Amino acid sequence: MSNKHSVLLKEDKCEGCTNCVKNCPTKAIRVHQGKATIKEELCIDCAECIRTCEYHAKYAETNKLKELKLNDYNVALLAPSFYGQFDRSFNPERIKKAVYKLGFDEVWDVAYAAEAISQKTYQFLNKNEGIYISSSCPVIVRLISLLYPELLDNIVPFNSPVDLMADYVKEQLSIPESKEYGMYFITPCPAKVTAIKNPLGRENSSLTGAISVDKVYPKILDLIKNEKDLKDVELKQDYQPYLGISWGQSGGENDILNNEGIIETLSVSGIHNIKKVLEELTRGNIEGIRYLELVACPTGCVGGIFNVNNPFQAKYNIKTNIREYSDFIDQDIDDFNFELDEKIKEIGAEKLDEDFVKAMDKLEQLEQEIENLPGLDCAACGAPDCETFAEDVVNGLAKRSDCIFVLRKEIGDLADQLSLLTHELPPVMNSEENNKNDNEKEK
Questions:
Q1: How large is the C-alpha radius of gyration of the chain?
Q2: Which residues contact 414 (CB under 8 A, 6 or more apart)?
């Protein structure tokens, strides 16, 4: 498992088709010598490459259930979107009981913290002017840090619901120091795994790891279908945060804010749609909006690649679960630590070279290379566009002839030269031919 990322590559399955190259929102993937590579410094673990790879060469790693045996005490945190995997007949109480049976000693809802953040965000927006962006999706936070650092101050300065809940639960646990405990998030997407390994705005995560939904869903489904298996399970928390479950689908966070009176909100899902919105925001073309709920997965967290149920059915399941609930669970939001450990920092774009003089030389070479390229951004070279390909050429990661249009021109020029050469003789042979002609004339 990577120390930084959860989205990984199986080179033996890669066919070099460039679908992943064309769909990566941060230009983190290249195909050289018929195989893809992922540039770690540009990857935001959005899983778009996993969605688009027909050969299953991209995958994501999470923790496994068998790892629970390594701990004396285990805690599970359930995502709001998790309940969308089940229809209304499987109520949250039964689902949580089934999770206990998997080997967990406590099961908590992240939706509880989501409700707290909704209330805190409402207070924040009433005190601060401007346009703000939700901090709930780690892909979006990482995307802004990488490509739109000028918008970092627009992110609400709060921990995500997952981190907020993990910190809260850690304070509630009463486990002897001599015992090892594990706290695992049942995650719908790889980005949450990366947020644990390599958090932004935090020194570290209170979570031990994350387990993907698809690893627990079949086992849970079997358990909740057999009611007698759950009779001996007692829940240690008696609250049911139905309203917070709405965070699991796109628009759910804004629905809560709308109910509280903040109506100038916009919900956008899908990483490529979000890039368009962020680009417009940097240009100052977004007006009249106070809050942007941006979620990388289509239809929200229910669209995460680790989920089992189709996202549209899951979205409906969540809506039917919260239909009769319109208020927050009674809680004191001051029990939560919303503040980040540090300001979210710019990840920073790649430099052409660490040495300033060399970087300037490479910049000049880059401009020349771009001028010689067709500007079609076809990705046939293995890079997402001509500008990125030119950077690879300048940095020695690709050859100019990797561009099929440049190669065709070079072959055409070579063919022309060969054609000319077929009608010419070397100077020595040419001299002998002239002497022969002269001798024939004398005769």
A1: 29
A2: none
C-alpha to C-alpha distance for 392 and 21, rounded to whole angstroms: 14
What residue type is 388 in one-letter code?
T
Q: Structure tokens of 174?
A: 């009463």
Counting every residue written for the chain, the total comes to: 443
pLDDT in the model for residue 124: 96
Q: For residues 43 and 46, give the distance between their C-alpha atoms in angstroms, rounded to a whole number.
A: 8
Where helices occur in 296-355 by DSSP H, the ranges are 311-322
DSSP per-residue codes, 61-114:
----GGGGGGSSEEEEEE-GGGGGGS-TTS-HHHHHHHHHTTT-SEEEEHHHHH
CA distance 376 to 383: 12
- The crossing angle, in degrees rounded to 10, of helices 386-394 and 356-372 is 130
Q: CA 309, CA 303: separation in Å to the nearest integer?
A: 9
Predicted confidence (pLDDT) per residue in 198-239, tens digit: 999 999 999 999 999 999 999 999 888 877 777 778 777 665
Could you say which DSSP state residue 158 is in?
A: B
Structure-block tokens of residue 193: 């795994």
Question: pTM, whole model, 2 decimals?
Answer: 0.87
State the Cα–Cα distance between residues 249 and 264, nearest whole angstrom: 19
Q: Which residues contact 76 (CB under 8 A, 6 or more apart)?
A: 99, 102, 104, 106, 107, 108, 184, 185, 186
